Amino acid sequence: MTETETNLYDVVVLGAGPVGENVADRTRAAGLTTAVVESELVGGECSYWACMPSKALLRPVIARADARRLPGLRRAVQGPLDTEAVLARRNWFTGDWTDDGQVDWIKSIGADLYRGHGRLTGPRTVTVGDKVLTARHAVVVATGTRAALPDLPGLAEVRPWTSREATSAQSAPGRLVVVGGGVVATEMATAWQALGSRVTLLVRGKGLLDRMEPFAGELVAAALTEAGADVRTGTSVASVTRTDGTVVVVTDTGERIEADEILFAVGRAPRTDDIGLDTVGLAPGSWLTVDDSLRVTGTDWLYGVGDVNHRALLTHQGKYQARIAGAAIAARAAGTDLPENDPWSAHAATADHASVPQVVFTDPEAAAVGLSLAEAEQAGHRVRAVDVDMSSVAGAGLYAEGYQGRARMVVDLEQEILRGVTFVGPGVGELIHSATVAVAGQVPLARLWHAVPSYPTLSEVWLRLLEAYRDN
Ligand SMILES: Cc1cc2nc3c(=O)[nH]c(=O)nc-3n(C[C@H](O)[C@H](O)[C@H](O)COP(=O)(O)OP(=O)(O)OC[C@H]3O[C@@H](n4cnc5c(N)ncnc54)[C@H](O)[C@@H]3O)c2cc1C
User: Fold this and answer.
1) How far, in Å, is the centroid of ligand 1 from the Cα of 158?
2) Which atom of ligand 1 is closest in space to residue 51's alpha carbon?
3) Do 465 and 410 contact (CB within 8 A), yes or no?
4) Which of 14, 134, 143, 195 sees the fewest Cβ atoms within 10 Å?
5) Looking at the structure, do residues 214 and 318 belong to the same domain, yes or no?
6) 50 lines ligand 1 (CB under 6 A)
7) Are residues 219 and 336 in the same domain?
8) How confident is the model at residue 3, as a pLDDT?
9) Is the distance from the beta carbon of residue 51 to the nearest atom of ligand 1 less than 6 Å?
10) Which pLDDT score is estimated for 350?
11) Cα(353)–Cα(358) distance, rounded to whole angstroms?
12) Low-confidence ranges of the chain (pLDDT < 70)
């Protein structure tokens, strides 16, 4: 075999995060030769600096909070968390930041792994070091995102934490300032406050989690405050410096806060600035605009899958897209039409536009799917919000003494289906898939009424919600 033949593939996947891995899995399953290019660790941000380590840090925090809400158990869990053990378990989940297991998996599906920074060097061509990989059918960009940092003078010298340091730190800083009010900020504030840091959370807007129903952020802010964190809304950072190890933050209101570390969790930027987009007529650093087969607009061979297309920055959504893109690439490679009529392969807007689920692993958890009331109204739907106190179900009382939580369903009054559902409260993360089924399935409420939840579980909140809708 010549060198050129060695480097000719049906599909070249740039980035081996969860999304790139899943695209490769699908294209290999369809019998297409596939190369995967990875510059860091196979498994991507999710495995090493995002989903897995953050949830490994949070799980003991939430378990302890749950236990403290139970008479008979409360006294047994009064002490502090064993931070060292929590961090050690987190380290285990990341394989101590090694990727041997996932590399073996790439081999097991029959894809070829190329390590190094890959760049497009023209249509259907990716260059990694001295290797040129040519794709017969598709190049898939699945390079994900990195943390975006604000444009503050001298910020680099402060050596701020991003989500990477916040998920991989090997000890708890004494004082931690967290800047941001979204998912990463609230989750990491929850984790590090419980693991021994004194957290000050600086939120520019009026509240936390502003993409969810307002009560989600309110309940999470109240719980963070109760846990000892200092939550300051309507506050942004005017300047930040580091002197002799101490971080000094001055806010726009002139307050001065000292800390040992500062975490900026203020958004994400696409990792497309240095992947040769200019060689194929696209703007470096941009989010990739794709159609519903995840193919980049204006091309017939380039795909943008996962975080990099900005549709929904979540692993489960990126993996959904990977399954759709894999099927589309396979169909086009076989010269057949897109599998529009195959319900297992065709893209469904319900999945990645109208019914995206997300769980925020704070204490209490906040879980939502579909549209909030404000979003549904903005989209022009005629809707009504139905609210229920989670504590109104027997299962909640059993779950925790003094259970605090709230549920909302946003009902489309024309079709009598759900546009969105939000649950906030201990243990609601596992409840969200029932709502996803209802929203994605567009289940009529009169039919949902006959889906009987088990007694005595938190799921009985469905009865309360449907009763509240029917009776008002
Ligand atoms: C702190 C945090 C917690 C999160 N928690 C959750 C959660 O609980 N649940 C959830 O669903 N989502 C969560 N997310 C979001 C989730 O991490 C992302 O949606 C997911 O990682 C996106 O996967 P991806 O494959 O598109 O990109 P990534 O996971 O970012 O993977 C991209 C890969 O491409 C590689 N790469 C980039 N450029 C190149 C190049 N030029 N050449 C070669 N390789 C390259 C990178 O090294 C990386 O391995 C969290 C995010 C953060 C920051």
Assistant:
1) 25
2) 5
3) no
4) 134
5) no
6) yes
7) no
8) 46
9) yes
10) 77
11) 13
12) 1-6, 339
Residues 306 and 256 in one domain: no
Is the Cβ–Cβ distance between 303 and 138 less than 8 Å?
A: yes
| 244/331 same-domain check | no
For residues 128 and 223, membership in a common domain is answered with no
Q: E strands of 296-377, at which residues?
A: 302-304, 357-360, 365-370
Percent of the chain at pLDDT above 90? 94
DSSP state of 295: B
Q: Is 20 in the pocket of ligand 1 (CB under 6 A)?
A: yes
Domain total for the chain? 3
For the chain, the straight-line distance linking the first and the last C-alpha, in angstroms and rounded, comes to: 74
In 3D space, the residue among 431, 465, 428 whose CA is nearest the CA of residue 448 turns out to be 465
Residue nearest to atom 35 of ligand 1 (CA): 15
Contacts for 383 with CB less than 8 Å, ≥ 6 apart: 373, 376, 377, 410, 411, 412, 413, 419
Cβ–ligand 1 distance for 44 under 6 Å, the answer yes
* 275 close to ligand 1 (CB < 6 Angstrom): yes
In Å, how far are 230, 347, 375 from 352, measured between CA atoms? 36, 9, 15
55 pocket-lining for ligand 1 (C-beta < 6 Å): yes
DSSP letters of 182-199? SHHHHHHHHHHHHTT-EE
Find the angle CA(188)-CA(71)-CA(394) to the nearest 5 degrees: 85
Query: What's the gap between Cα 197 and its chain centre?
Result: 24
How many Cβ atoms are within 10 Å of 289's Cβ, its own excluded? 12
Q: Strand locations in 142-282, DSSP E?
A: 145-147, 175-179, 198-202, 230-232, 237-243, 246-251, 256-259, 261-264, 268-270
List, for residues 198-227, the tens digit of each pLDDT value. 999 999 999 999 999 999 999 999 999 999
Vertex 227, ends 56 and 389: CA angle to 5°?
90
| Inside any domain, residue 107 | yes
Distance CA 96, CA 100 (A): 11
Q: What is the residue whose two structure tokens read 């004082």?
A: 175
What are the tens digits of pLDDT across the range 113-168? 999 999 999 999 999 999 999 999 999 999 999 999 999 999 999 999 999 999 99
Domain enclosing residue 273, as ranges: 3-43+99-146+269-351
